[in-house]
Each structure stands twice: as C-alpha cells, then as structure tokens.
Amino acid sequence: MTSEGALTLTLELEAGCVADVHVSSTRRTDYSAALAGRAVDEALHLVPSLFSICATAHAVAALRACERALGVEVDAEQRRLRELLCQLEALDNHAFQVSVGWAKQAGVAPDVEPLRRLRHATETLRVWAHAGARWVRLGGIGFTPRGSVDALLAELSDAVDAVAPPAARQGDARALEAWSAQAAGPVAALFRQVFSLGAAGFGKSTLPLVPALDAAWFEARLTGPDFGARPTLDAGAAESGALARAAHHPAVAALVGAHGHAVLPRLVAALVDLRALADAVASVASALARSPGHAHAERDSGSGAGVADTSRGARRCWCWRSTRACRAAW
Length: 330
Prior knowledge:
Elements lengths: L6 E8 L2 E9 L14 H11 L4 H16 L5 H31 L5 H19 L19 H14 L9 H10 L3 H11 L18 H8 L19 H5 L3 H10 L3 H25 L14 E8 L4 E8 L4 E4 L1
Antiparallel strand pairs: 1-2, 3-4, 4-5
Helix pairs in contact: 1-2, 3-4, 3-7, 3-11, 4-5, 5-11, 6-7, 10-11
C-alpha cells in the first residue's frame, strides 16, 4: 500500500499575527508512470483506481484528453453523461465536508441523516444515468431507455436543502448570525462559532480566484516539467474551489464585499455551490435522452488535454498515444 503523502503548512508569527506561510508537500505526482506504455483502454480503466478522491473527475479528464489526442468525436449525450457524473461526485464531496467536516470543526455531532439521503439520491441517479455500464471508454457507451427522473431529482433537491439550509445561503451577515443562534445542525453550529469569535473576516486572502480555464490552457502548460506538481496561475498562487465558482452569486459577492476572501464568504460559497450543483444536475439529467454512443479514433497518435471540475477545483490531464502506448501527466 502506498502513502498518499501530506501537505505541511508552517506559519511564522509576529506580534500575534501571521507574518509568513510556508507550504511543503510529500504528495505523489508520479502517477503517470503507472500508465506509460499501456494501451489506451487499459490506462483509462486504471485511472479511477489511482485516485481515492475525485476518481470520476480524473477519469473524465483522462477520457477527454485521450479523445482529443486521437480525434474521437463524442456526441452531446456522452458529454452530458460525464458532466452529470462529475456533478454528482462533487455533490457527494461537498455534502460530506459540510455534514461531517464542519461538524468536527464546530465540535458537534455529524448530521448523518441528510447526508445519507443525499448519497442515496446521487447513487440512484448514477444508476439511472448509465445502468451500471462501464462508461470509462473512448467515445462513450450505448444508452437504453430511461424512466422519468423527476422523483429522483426531487429527492436530491430536498436532501441538499437539508444539508445546506436555504437560510444559510444569504449575504446578510446579521441575518446569518440571527439564524445560526436559533438553528440546529453543523452549519448553524459552525456559523455560531465564527460569529462568537468575531472571525467572519479571518483568513482573508488577496490571491486571485481561478477563472474557468479550458483544456487548451492546461495543454500549453502541462508540457513543462513542473506544472503538474506545482500548478500556478500566471506564475503565481490562486484560489480555486467553491469561492472561485460562486463568487458571482449575489450572496457571496455581498459577503466578499464586506469581508474579502475570508472564512464567512467561503462557508456561504460552499453552501451556494451545493445548491448550484444540484440545480445543474437537474438541468443535465432532464436533457439526457438516448444515444448510440458509437465513435472511432481518427488517428493512431496525437496529443491533447482534458479538464473536469470538482468540488476542490479543476482536474486536468494531458495525454498522447502512439500506436501501442499511452503517456499521461496530471
């Protein structure tokens, strides 16, 4: 069993304030070595098993990269299916962090029942979407007729509102404080802690937020030796994740205007992003119909990049294939 490594943060304090921060990582960045020399189909089958976190997003990024490299045209239904699976994975990750991670930070019991309901809904939607077929394959899969998805989406929506209460997704700090003082659950408990400590603006950062970046942007940088291990934005650090995705939302924008890129805006951004993901799932699932899923490679070698978004930020893959081998870098 291999170690996943760790991120170590060292803070330098002066007069009770953080003067400097040093980050070191022992996380592995050599996963591409496990894929080099393998047939593309074999490499694609292995990719999800290499990553315990965001395995679906890694698989989708790898698929997109290989298809781009080989000139495989993928129809709209296949793109929707993969987008749906990434959204469902991100929902699971977000909900776990809110229900369990936030509870741990606040020192309260995890909110298990809403999380259980949400995960039941996401898993049922996965089965509805691909019927257990092996979907990690070039060009996609064939679809069979699906039943109505309305009841499944209603179940998901209710579970999301239980994990991320609508009253906690607003941009008025005073209203949030008043709500959290009366409400139960890990969300309210963590908000109470933030307000009691006067920490709404704690952790304020002036780093830029990562914008939406396409595969071509990553492809131009992944050819270098260091980007996969230490990605940067314009040669500097930047913030990805829920705040970057939800910064345009009125509630998040209002809190950022009052507190900057700090704790309270980040907490609300995570809840807003949960709701946005659920709405996106409803939109994509409702658009899924039937597709034959047939495609073929136009060439035997080439290069390409693929990107898939997760709850933490973009997962990117660069891949090229000769007639017998595949090489990839993350």
